[in-house]
Every structure is written in C-alpha cells, then in structure tokens.
C-alpha cells in the first residue's frame, strides 16, 4: 500500500446520506487504500460504480507506485542497476514530476527518497537521526537531472538513486478514480483519497460540494482542543477542479529541542524549516495540485505567493510570522472559492 502524508483537507458532510431529486440519488462508497481512507460521492439515476471496482483500480496503482508494496514497479526501479520499463500511469506521473521539478527550480524532486529514509520518514525504521556528513553523502544521490525518461524506459545515472512518488501519486490516484466515474456516465461526483479531492458537477439542488480546510488549532484554544492538533479554518465550495494540501503541523518527529517536518528540502538535505505550515492548492486536476503543494511548502510565503500567481495556481497559505504567531494568506482566486 501507499503511505502518504497526513490528511490536511477534511470533507464536510453537509448533505444527507441519501438525497433524491427527480431520478437522481446520492451514492456513497468508502474504503481504505494507499495507507489512508477514501470516499466517493456521486449522483446518478442508478448505482453505476462498485467498491470492488474502485479497490481494484487503486490496487493497480499501488502495484506500480507504492514503496510499501513488495515487487511494485517503483521498488523494482529503486533496486535496479540502471533502468526499468514502467507502465503508462507511472510514465504520466514521471512526466508531471519532471515538469514541476523544472518549473520550481528543483524544489519538487522525486529522487529525495534516500533523504526521506535517512531522516526516519521512509518505509524502513531508523535508530537515530543523521549527522551532517551523512546528509552530505546522501545528497550525492539526489537530483532529477540524474534521471532520464525515454518513452516508457526510465534510466538513472547511478544505481544508488531511488525515487519516491508519495508527493504526487495520490493526486494521480484521485484523478484516475474520477476519470473512471466519468467514463461510467456520472456527471456529478466528488472523489477524496487521504484528503486530496476532485469535484465535477453540481449537486441536484444546484450547489457545489463543500470541503473543509484544516490548520493548526488557534493559540487561544484549550489544552483539550489542542490535543487534536487541527481545526477547520475555512470552507470552500467547488463544482469543478481539484484541491489538495501539503502541511507539516501534524506529521513530524521530535528532534532535539523541537520537531522536524516530514518534508525534506532536496537542496539542503534537511527537513523544511522556513515558517510555512501548510499549503492548499486549487487546480484543474489533482496531480497538478498535489505536486505543486509540496513545492510551495519549500518556499517562504512571499516566494510562494508570487510563484502561485505566475503559475496561474490558486492557493491558501498558513505560516509562522517572524515572531512565531500563526497567520494565513491566499490568492484572489482562492478567496472566491470560500463559503462566507
């Protein structure tokens, strides 16, 4: 199974379990896949999709891109000497990864896998944290310039290079399930896997699907409330598009006198420590939103805001001010998605 970063976006179930409007009914499928929960909600005149079909599709993706599934294509490549033929889905994720890598000047980098493992966030348990020499040595294995994709053949310059698609493969998975629903003739649906969401169409009452965005609990909250580590900060309503979040406030390890993020800077080799708490991105599809939310996390808030505007992305940022206080900001387009 795939194990992904902690869920940041939570769905607000603000509609009844079963709703009828003419011939349209609400159908719901829930399950567990890729190390997290998933949920599908769609309106149709009859049941068009089964849980078994969804589970089968997600298992196929796992067999290709899961670091936690023995024998998966990604594990085969990581163990391979120099090259491996990948499937079409794998190639699609690689192509998008290269695109985001170049557009973000290397802030998004799938070859970060050795560093993720080194800091204790990989599939194998570690006994302690690395010293600076270990980080420097591991950095020699990092950099997407050391990869080459030609057709369905993926090459690496060094056998030690390993890749990790956890920062983008779940977005791809959401898109694939959404595409399956659309091919089944469904015109109104919401697909969510681990908090990554794709929406298409309106509900029968004409409204969109509402999604809650989580963030750290307010500083004035009670100790009991803070034990939950998160609270809703905003609600958005969508009729089309994808929304994903990357954040570090509820996935970390204790380190010395503080905490370290599970998000690793591929340029320095160390966990991110730039004041950014979470980034939520709205885009046309989930693979785009999922890839860019990670890259934006590696920027400071001013850089991230400027990049989002230039890249025609809509985004919402939660960050620490220099004095330690929590603040947030958002692009003008994202503001239009909010429910007052």
Helix and strand layout, with pairings?
Elements lengths: L8 E3 L8 E2 L2 E10 L2 E9 L6 H15 L7 H7 L3 E3 L2 H16 L9 H6 L13 H8 L7 E4 L2 E4 L12 H15 L4 E6 L2 E5 L8 E7 L7 H4 L4 E8 L1 E8 L4 E4 L2 E4 L14 E8 L2 H12 L3 H10 L3 E7 L5 E5 L1 H4 L5
Antiparallel strand pairs: 1-10, 2-3, 3-4, 4-8, 5-7, 6-7, 8-9, 9-12, 10-11, 12-15, 13-14, 15-16, 16-17
Helix pairs in contact: 1-6, 3-8, 6-8
Outline the structure in words.
The protein is of the alpha+beta class and 340 residues long. It folds into 2 domains: 9-58 and 172-335, T-fold; 74-156, ApbE-like superfamily (T-fold, Orthogonal Bundle), CATH 1.10.3980.10. Helices cover 29% and strands 29% of the residues. The strands form 4 sheets. The chain has a 9-stranded antiparallel beta sheet. It has a 3-stranded antiparallel beta sheet with strand order 1-10-11, with no helix packed on it. Strands 5-7-6 form a 3-stranded antiparallel beta sheet, with helices on one face. Helix 1 runs antiparallel to helix 6, helix 3 packs parallel to helix 8 and helix 6 packs antiparallel against helix 8 (286-297).
Quick structural gist:
This protein has 340 residues and is of the alpha+beta class.
List its traits:
9-stranded antiparallel β-sheet; T-fold; 2 domains; 340 residues; alpha+beta; 3-stranded antiparallel β-sheet; 10 helices; disordered N terminus; 29% strand
Major sheet: 9 strands, antiparallel
Low-pLDDT residue spans? 3-8, 13-21, 220-228
State the CATH architecture of the largest domain: Roll
Radius of gyration: 20 Å
Taken as a percent bin, the fraction of beta residues is: 25-35%
Quickly give the structural class: alpha+beta
| Separation, N- and C-terminal Cα atoms | 38 Å
Just give the CATH class of the largest domain: Alpha Beta
The CATH superfamily of the largest domain bears the name ApbE-like domains
- Topology as a string of helices (H) and strands (E): EEEEHHEHHHEEHEEEHEEEEEHHEEH
Kindly report the average pLDDT value.
Answer: 88
| Number of distinct helices | 10
Number of domains: 2
Number of strands: 17
CATH topology of the largest domain: T-fold
Shape: globular
Order of neighbouring strands in the sheet with most strands: 2-3-4-8-9-12-15-16-17
């Amino acid at each position: 199974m795939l194990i992904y970063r902690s869920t940041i976006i939570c769905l607000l179930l603000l509609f009844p379990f079963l709703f009828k409007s003419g011939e349209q009914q609400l159908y719901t499928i829930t399950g567990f896949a890729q190390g997290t929960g998933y949920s599908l909600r769609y309106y149709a005149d009859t049941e068009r999709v089964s849980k078994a079909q969804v589970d089968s599709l997600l298992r196929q993706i796992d067999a290709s891109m899961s670091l936690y599934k023995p024998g998966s294509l990604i594990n085969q490549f990581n163990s391979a000497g120099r090259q491996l033929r990948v499937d079409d889905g794998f190639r699609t994720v690689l192509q998008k990864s290269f695109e985001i890598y170049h557009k973000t000047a290397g802030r998004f980098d799938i070859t970060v896998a050795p560093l993720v493992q080194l800091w204790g966030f990989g599939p194998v348990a570690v006994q302690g944290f690395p010293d600076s020499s270990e980080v420097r040595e591991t950095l020699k294995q990092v950099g997407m310039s050391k990869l080459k994709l030609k057709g369905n053949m993926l090459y690496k310059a060094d056998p030690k290079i390993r890749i990790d698609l956890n920062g983008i493969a779940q977005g791809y998975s959401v898109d694939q399930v959404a595409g399956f629903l659309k091919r089944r003739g469904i015109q109104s649906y919401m697909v969510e896997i681990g908090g990554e969401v794709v929406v298409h169409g309106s509900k029968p009452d004409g409204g969109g699907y509402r999604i809650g965005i989580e963030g750290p609990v307010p500083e004035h909250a009670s100790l009991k409330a803070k034990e939950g580590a998160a609270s809703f900060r905003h609600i958005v309503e969508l009729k089309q598009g994808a929304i994903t979040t990357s954040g570090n406030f509820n996935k970390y390890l204790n380190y010395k006198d503080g905490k370290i993020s599970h998000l690793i800077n591929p340029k320095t080799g160390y966990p991110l420590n730039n004041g950014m708490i979470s980034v939520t991105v709205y885009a046309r599809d989930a693979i785009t939103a999922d890839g860019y939310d990670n890259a934006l996390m590696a920027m400071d808030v001013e850089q991230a805001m400027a990049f989002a505007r230039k890249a025609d992305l809509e985004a919402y940022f939660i960050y620490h001010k220099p004095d330690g206080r929590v603040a947030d900001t958002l692009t003008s387009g994202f503001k239009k998605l909010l429910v007052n």
